[in-house]
Write the structure tokens for this entry.
Amino acid sequence: MDEQHIEQDINFEKEIEKIQKITPGKLVKSEIIKINNDGVLVNLGIKSEGIIPINEFAQRGIPDEFKEGKEIYVLIKPEIQDGYRVVSYNQARIKIAWDSLLNSYKNKEPVNCKILKN
């Protein structure tokens, strides 16, 4: 086998690893492709696209910093909508925050927070 074929085999293995990581419940770095009335379309990095449904932004609206090309983290959901994997930006943010808090607790690090009263 020549060097070019070996390199192609290695790249193919990397692509298979990426596909295996796109499972429900996983946190994935994605890139915003398009924003429309249905939601935010994102590239999941495996020749697959996901959609953050517009109803996820019902209370606060789509964040102003969301622009085409911006990278964001999303959480993969099990549903499919119009041929796209449904993903959640809000659930990704919650997971990242909890993971950070848990990590601080395990490492006995102080946590800065703001206490709110209803």
